[in-house]
Design goal:
CATH class of the largest domain: Alpha Beta
CATH topology of the largest domain: Chloramphenicol Acetyltransferase
Largest sheet: 7 strands, mixed
Shape: globular
Radius of gyration: 27 Å
CATH superfamily of the largest domain: Chloramphenicol acetyltransferase-like domain
Number of helices: 11
Length: 436
């Protein structure tokens, strides 16, 4: 008995997605609720689980295709054995191939090509038959990774994957190819044909075209829309981080022992932002048509780096959370972003954004607001600089702060005052405790 696999509900106002990658191939054994495909929406990657335990059947949609909620993308055969995929079957011939599998887009991109049958793949990469260890443990490869494997003659079963669930990435294959190039290359088998895409020589100028993911396309559209719609302006200030660094050094061990999480700088800046947003409510508001929407709560969007691009999960009611709650939430977001486990609910809403480019070494930037929000606070790296203190030059750990805002709603005086409140709270953290 076969069960259809349909595109699940993706979240409020999200009706379609892109099939990013098949995690299971026809003939693979699957367990109930085991991910068999990865969908890319405008905001997050969503895994599609198997409804039953059995054997992966027919793919009805090709990687890269756009699918709507409720679309049947595959079937799973109940029971059976995974070894059935290796046995001869009429479906293996081209003439008997399912006619309703979506063809890749006709743009000539080899990354969009459907996966080759096992016997064809073995003929190209030179691996052996069913008794070959590399064949028995062949990992699931995306089309782009498979192409690099073929180009460089890499045995994927001998490369440690750093991607999601241990899958190989392009970087893994390129690193293995570089390492392999340092050792004498084995003589190729006489009967093995040359790879379809020849490896470029050192004098060639190579190019590669890769289709933008749905998430990257959405990021591009939203950022450009923000520039086209809002009257963007950025104001700067700098802050002496000495007091926060001292407090963090003094209490970090006790904090971690009691709360099970490290005391970071984001907790201080989130609390300082909540204090400043309370004093300058326009920074926490947004424009809706010809109306201004004010919020009596603070939902802070925290920019987090994910494999597919920058994402902004939301810390709900940050004004009511403790330092420990904020740090735990941010740590959880970071871990789930790297694993691709953030949900649509995590990304929805937000009244103000904090983006910490300092973790990547940024000295100064002009961040772009995340519509429909009206402002974003940019943090940067801490750098020892000479400053004048009571008429004396001292070396202090300084950080530049940047506030980009929509000048249609927020006046320059309000933006400058907002950053001033942040600066005072960070330079004297006691203000965070007594609400000054």
């Amino acid at each position: 008995m076969a069960s259809e696999v349909k595109v699940p509900t993706l979240g409020e106002s999200v009706s379609e997605a892109t099939l990013g990658e098949w995690l299971k191939q026809p003939g693979d054994a699957v367990a109930v609720d085991e991910p068999i495909a990865s969908l890319e929406t405008d905001k997050v990657a969503v895994e599609v689980p198997s409804p039953i335990a059995g054997v992966m059947g027919e793919h009805k949609v090709a990687e890269g295709a756009t699918v709507e909620v409720g679309t049947v993308i595959a079937v799973v055969e109940e029971g059976g054995a995974a070894s059935s995929a290796a046995s001869p079957a009429p479906a293996a011939s081209k003439a008997d191939a399912p006619a309703n599998i979506a063809e890749p887009a006709g743009d000539g991109d080899p990354d969009d090509a459907p996966e080759a049958p096992d016997d064809q793949r073995r003929a190209v990469d030179g691996s052996g038959g069913k008794d070959d260890p590399a064949t028995r443990e062949m990992p699931t490869l995306s089309p782009a990774v498979r192409r690099l494997v073929l180009e460089h003659g890499i045995d994927p079963s001998r490369v440690h994957g750093t991607g999601k669930d241990g899958r190989l990435t392009k970087e893994d294959v390129l690193a293995a190819a570089k390492k392999q190039g340092e050792a004498p290359a084995p003589a190729p088998a006489a009967a093995a044909p040359a790879p379809a895409a020849a490896k470029a020589t050192s004098g060639d100028r190579a190019e590669e075209r890769v289709k933008m993911t749905r998430m990257r396309q959405t990021i591009a559209k939203r950022l450009k829309s923000a520039q086209d719609t809002a009257a963007l302006l950025t104001t700067f200030n700098d802050v002496d981080m000495s007091a926060v660094i001292e407090a963090r050094t003094r209490y970090k061990d006790l904090f971690e022992k009691k709360h099970g999480v490290r005391l970071g700088f984001m907790g201080f800046f989130t609390k300082a932002a909540c204090l400043a947003l309370k004093d300058i409510p326009n920074v926490n508001a947004q424009i809706d048509g010809d109306e201004i929407v004010y919020h009596d709560y603070v939902d802070v969007s925290v920019a987090v780096s994910a494999p597919g691009g920058l994402v902004v999960p939301v810390i709900r009611n940050a004004e009511a959370l403790s330092f420990a709650d904020i740090e735990k939430t941010i740590g959880d977001f970071g871990a789930r972003a790297k694993a691709g486990k953030l949900t649509m609910e995590d990304m929805t809403g937000g009244t103000f954004t904090i983006s910490n480019g300092g973790v990547f070494g940024s000295l100064m930037s002009t961040p772009i607001i995340n519509p429909p929000q009206s402002a974003v606070l940019g943090l940067h790296r801490i750098e020892d600089r000479p400053v004048a203190i009571d008429g004396e030059v001292e070396i202090r750990p300084m950080m530049y702060l940047a506030l980009s805002y929509d000048h249609r709603l927020i006046d320059g005086r309000e933006a400058v005052t907002f950053l001033k409140v942040i600066k005072e709270a960070i330079e004297d953290p006691t203000r965070l405790l007594i609400d000054l």
